[in-house]
Amino acid sequence: MLSLALARRLRDAGLTWEPASGDRFVLLSPEMSDDVFVLSDMVADVHHFPGGSVIGFNGTVEWALDSVSAEQALWLPTEEQLRERLADSFARLERADPGYRVVCEDGAAFEALFADDAYALALLARLGP
């Protein structure tokens, strides 16, 4: 799973998130930042309002948490989602020692211990400073 530090850097660099079923996220409040949530049509889903998106927690009566704004959540994109965002600039994923290397069409390479972190580093380079 993508590190929280890289997820924050991606968000700060301008990566946008349109919450969808299956997406993983954490809440930005310190007391809940260690809990990873998954959007599901059965438990947590997205409600779109004119003022913004809200993630609703349905059927979780044991919690006092009914909903949070999407801005209060930090998206943890998957390896596949990161690769999709790289689009045509992605060339290949290679094993590195240790870990993985993402190579882009322009020859730039990004290494990390985990594949999703390597994808995130490549995407950060595309998003700019």
Layout of helices and strands, plus pairs?
Layout: H1 4-12, E1 24-27, E2 36-38, E3 44-49, E4 52-57, E5 67-69, E6 73-75, H2 79-86, E7 90-95, E8 100-104, E9 109-112, H3 115-127
Antiparallel strand pairs: 1-2, 1-6, 3-4, 4-5, 7-8, 8-9
Helix pairs in contact: 1-3, 2-3
Notes on the protein architecture:
This is Pilus assembly protein CpaE. It comes from Motilibacter deserti. With 129 residues, the chain is of the alpha+beta class. It has 3 helices and 9 strands; from the N terminus they run αββββββαβββα. The strands form 3 sheets. The protein has a 3-stranded antiparallel β-sheet. A 3-stranded antiparallel β-sheet has the order 3-4-5, with no helix packed on it. A 3-stranded antiparallel β-sheet has the order 7-8-9, with helices on one face. Strand 1 and strand 2 form a beta hairpin. The longest helix has 13 residues, at 115-127. The two termini are 24 Å apart. The mean pLDDT is 88.
Question: What structural category arises from helix and sheet content?
Answer: alpha+beta
The Cα radius of gyration reads 16 Å
In helices, the fraction of residues equals: 10-25%
Round the mean pLDDT to the nearest integer and report it: 88
User: Which residues form runs of ≥5 with pLDDT under 50?
Assistant: none
Major sheet attributes: 3 strands, antiparallel
Order of helices and strands: HEEEEEEHEEEH
Ends: how far apart?
24 Å
**Shape assignment:** elongated
Percentage of residues in strands: 25-35%
- Count of runs of 4 or more consecutive helical residues: 3
Strands of the widest sheet, in order across it, are 2-1-6
Number of strands: 9
